[in-house]
Specification:
The complex is a heterodimer.
Chain A (H helix, E strand, L loop, with lengths): L1 H9 L4 H21 L3 H26 L4 E7 L2 E6 L6 H23 L9 H17 L12 H18 L3 H16 L9 H16 L5 E4 L13 E3 L4 E4 L2
Antiparallel strand pairs in A: 1-2, 3-5, 4-5
Helix pairs in contact in A: 1-2, 1-4, 2-3, 3-4, 5-8, 6-7, 7-8
Chain B lengths: L10 H10 L6 H11 L8 H13 L3 E6 L8 E5 L1 H23 L9
Antiparallel strand pairs in B: 1-2
Helix pairs in contact in B: 1-2
Chain lengths: ~250, ~110
């Protein structure tokens, strides 16, 4: 159902864009829908709505600057030019209008609640999302309902983060404070109800920043495995799904 | 450097160039790499991602390599060109210069950046 909705939204884009990237765009959304659940999936639709609002006018302007005809068809003594664009289906406009309203609602909500304008841009929005994950953890509920990590992995990740920060972080005092803080949280059982990787890594990042104020120090989680090659030399892999970026 | 369509370089385009600096990637992998290298701050939707890719292809800053394989023929791999690497380097140098200026003027007030 979700894919069908997005396929309808794709119809709003120019034919040239759809021909060139339509399949890939649909595949991208399919993979994100597969990877993200619960609150993250809801957030995905907000992101898609915002992306639609921003990218759709740009692609149509780009298309207007190009010739709007396909290759000429030669028949007999004349040449016939094929019109490239067909009108989108009415369903596309309806879905597009719904998403435009959603994007506008989201923008107004963030504006009134200090999401974009006052709290440092998307960072503030992500912090709000982190808080939503944390509140669900406090209530003893996992975000997705499906356990993704266990106590042994949590402890392994914490140990890995501590080892890498102590070995590689430039500020040894802050590294010690991080060690103390994470061990105290572990001893207090603060991570016991966190059974999803995203929630666990978001919580660790919040705790790391509370100590260091360093946004470059970050725990990464990828459910489908961390990429083994990347642009950053400072990523220390803890296990197949967790790593820590140490600037 | 001659004036080009991507001057100044938009943030999304720069992040795509940086993502491709390490290896050839398809669209979804580019999106994930950009998310990782921005600490989750930038998650590009398909419209923004492929619109940027289209512009970068037109400017010859990236190139399409080949379809990944027959099973997954919808995926295309993209590769950074030499010109694209130069443009990304130029933009990174510009940011590094700005960062030095910010440090000199003590913008960060003791926080490490």
């Amino acid at each position: 159902m979700s894919e069908r909705i997005f396929a309808l939204l794709l119809r709003l884009y120019p034919a040239r864009f759809r021909r060139e990237f339509g399949d890939e765009a649909l595949q991208l959304v399919r993979e994100r829908l597969h990877a993200e659940h619960g609150l993250a999936r809801l957030w995905l639709w907000f992101e898609l709505a915002g992306d639609l609002v921003l990218s759709l006018p740009r692609e149509h302007v780009r298309n207007l600057r190009r010739p709007r005809v396909a290759q000429p068809q030669v028949a007999g003594g004349g040449m016939f030019w094929m019109v490239e664009e067909r009108p989108p289906q009415p369903g596309s406009f309806i879905i597009g209008a719904v998403f435009a309203l959603l994007a506008l609602s989201l923008f107004l909500f963030l504006l009134n609640h200090g999401g974009v304008a006052r709290s440092g841009g998307w960072q503030g929005t992500l912090q709000g999302l982190d808080a939503a994950y944390a509140s669900q953890a406090t209530a003893g509920q996992g975000v997705s309902g499906v356990p993704e990590i266990d106590a042994a992995e949590r402890e392994r990740v914490i140990r890995g983060v501590i080892e890498n920060v102590r070995a590689n972080y430039f500020d040894k005092d802050k590294a010690q404070q991080v060690t103390t803080a994470l061990r105290e949280h572990l001893r207090a059982g603060d991570y016991d109800t966190m059974d999803t990787g995203n929630l666990f890594s978001a919580t660790l990042n919040r705790q790391l920043r509370a100590v260091t104020h360093d946004e470059g120090l970050m725990v990464l989680f990828r459910a489908d495995g961390l990429s083994t090659s990347h642009a950053f030399a400072t990523l220390h892999v803890i296990d197949t799904r967790f790593g820590v970026l140490v600037p | 450097m001659p004036k080009r369509k991507l001057d100044p370089l938009p943030a999304a385009a720069f992040q795509i160039l940086v993502a491709l600096a390490g290896e050839d990637l398809h669209g979804y992998a580019i999106m994930r790499q950009v998310e990782e290298q921005t600490g989750g701050r930038m998650r590009m939707g398909p419209g923004t991602l492929y619109g940027s890719i289209q512009t970068l292809l037109e400017e010859s800053l990236i190139e399409e390599v080949s379809r990944a394989d027959d099973e997954d023929s919808r995926r295309r791999l993209y590769r950074l060109t030499a010109e694209g690497r130069q443009v990304a380097r130029h933009e990174a140098d510009r940011m590094a210069y700005l960062l030095r200026a910010a440090r000199v003027n003590k913008i960060f007030r003791g926080d490490y950046v």
